[in-house]
Amino acid sequence: MTKRIFKSIILASVIVLLASGGLTIGVLYNHFGNQLEEELRTEAEFLSIAVEDEGMNAFDSIPSEAERITYIDTDGTVLFDNRSDAADMENHMDREEIQEAMEEGSGMAVRESDTLSRRTLYYAVRLSDGTVLRVSSVQYNLTGLLGGMIQPLLIILILALVLAGVLASRLAKQIVNPLNGLDLDHPEENQTYEEVAPLLSRINRQQKSLQAEITEAKRQQEEFSMITDNMEEGFLVIDSHTEVLSYNSSALRLLGAKDKDARQSVLALNRSENFQKTVEKVLSGQHVISYQEFQGITCQVAANPVFQDEKVTGAVILILDVTEKMKGEQMRREFTANVSHELKTPLTSISGFAEIISDGFVKPEDTKKFAGRIFKEAQRLIVLVNDVIKISQLDEGKLPYEKESVDLYEMVREIFVRMEDHAKAEGVHCYLYGPHIKADTVKTILDEIIYNLCDNGIKYNKKGGSLTVTISQDGERPVITVEDTGIGVSEEDQKRIFERFYRVDKSHSKAIGGTGLGLSIVKHGAMFLGADIKVESTLGEGSKFILTLPE
Ligand code: ADP
């Protein structure tokens, strides 16, 4: 802008300079021309008086370097000329000024010289005897005058231009500086040219509406980030060149990417072939749903293309961690297979014994024995089916969930009564210690848990061993500890005994009527109640199961 103002000022100065120079020269030229004419006229008048008085003698005192004076006879013959010899001069009758003077008393003429840079002014006056006195003077014409003055004129022009340059530069800065110093953050606070005030107030209005839009966009962005960042699911929006436009932290976590650089391709977040193929497919316009494994996490990747005017402009990718779901499904499949297998064994025995009896292969005295075996297998089936039902109910969360205040000591005492025969049969002594702590819990489930733990404590005990249940408190949390002096569980097996159908010693467990579901019911029951279950055990010495209920 400074440059443009500078150039404009210089251009204006040059135009003004040339125009004013030209006009001045024109006016001066005209003025001097008129003055010269006047001088010639006065000189001719004076001289004519002298010639009238003295005749030719009047010319004696005229120096040759004075204005040219020519005296012409009535027939045009030159009688005198102070610059040339009159005898050599041609007849002047044809000269315009002479003719005019002869006819009208005086005459004036201007003739350009050969060189074109000068012109000669002639003024002629008729004397009383009809002779004509002519005075002439040479003057520079306009071209001549300009030619003669070109050097000083150029110097003046250059000086004027330099001066104009300096002034223009200062002026341009003076004009532009306040504009450069405008505080556009607070447009209305500027006190510069009133001409820019409307512009500033418009900027102010636009700035305000822009600010409002930015604030709204930021708010929406923050809202969006808050929602997406709190999502467990990974969320990505990419453009058609695979560049990530939007993402949440879950997406980075699930894809195993540490951080994301600006304008990064989604392909750099996970380099697995499956993921690359998904991106390729979705950007070709296909909806993709696939299961992929990212660093041990099973994910469902759902990718949807985004179309605009039937062209794919990007894609939205949703990544769900389905590890637990998959594990659950796997567990359910295994559970079904295990249940079928466990049911098959007693059923095959029952069917076998019944077939032998019906075929009449069993002696009447052995019938009782066979019926007893069938009864035992049927009992096993009932226990197994009951356990499966309990596990399923816990799995589905379909159990009646009614909490009540339970006296833990009383509840264990009742369990001991129910187990009395079993304990006696196994030769195990049962002990109960602790205060009458009350817990707000679901009694049926807690009963089932403690019953299973006590049942195991008797089953996996030694003859003459003991089972001790202690009621205590860990802070506000009620604790029930079931401890036995039985066979114990190795550290390796401790990790697995809560799994469904896991039994340390299959044949022994089966022989004593175990289903492999007891501790699984304990674990699920504890989860249902919000309690923690822990095992401490030493092989050959005994086990301790600690159940800590919630406050
Ligand atoms: P089961 O019906 O076979 O007893 P559980 O789920 O109750 O099934 O127990 C799983 C396995 O854990 C048992 O087969 C047994 O090997 C082991 N176990 C459970 N409780 C004890 C205990 N108190 N002492 C030693 N081993 C135990």
Describe the SSE topology.
Elements (H helix, E strand, L loop, with lengths): L1 H53 L13 E5 L5 E4 L14 H9 L1 E7 L5 E9 L5 E9 L1 H39 L16 H33 L4 E6 L4 E4 L1 H7 L17 H11 L4 E7 L2 E12 L2 E11 L1 H36 L8 H30 L7 E4 H19 L2 E5 L4 E4 L1 H17 L6 E9 L2 E8 L6 H4 L11 H6 L6 H12 L2 E7 L3 E7 L3
Parallel strand pairs: 12-14
Antiparallel strand pairs: 1-2, 1-5, 3-4, 4-5, 6-7, 6-10, 8-9, 9-10, 11-13, 14-15, 15-17, 16-17
Helix pairs in contact: 1-3, 7-8, 8-13, 9-10, 10-13
Tell me what the structure shows.
This protein has helices at 2-54, 96-104, 142-180, 197-229, 249-255, 273-283, 323-358, 367-396, 408-426, 443-459, 491-494, 506-511, 518-529, and strands at residues 68-72, 78-81, 106-112, 118-126, 132-140, 234-239, 244-247, 288-294, 297-308, 311-321, 404-407, 429-433, 438-441, 466-474, 477-484, 532-538, 542-548. The strands form 4 sheets. It has a 5-stranded antiparallel sheet with strand order 2-1-5-4-3. The chain has a 5-stranded antiparallel sheet with strand order 7-6-10-9-8, with helices on both faces. Helix content is 50%, strand content 21%. A hairpin with a 5-residue loop joins strand 4 (118-126) and strand 5. The protein contains 13 helices and 17 strands. With 551 residues, the protein is an alpha+beta fold. The two termini are 78 Å apart. The protein is rod-shaped. It has 4 domains: 2-150, Beta-Lactamase (2-Layer Sandwich), CATH 3.30.450; 231-321, PAS domain (Beta-Lactamase, 2-Layer Sandwich); 326-396, Signal transduction histidine kinase, dimerisation/phosphotransfer (DHp) domain (Helix Hairpins); 404-548, Heat Shock Protein 90. Residues 456-457, 460, 484, 486-489, 497, 502-505, 509, 514-520, 543 line the site of adenosine-5'-diphosphate.
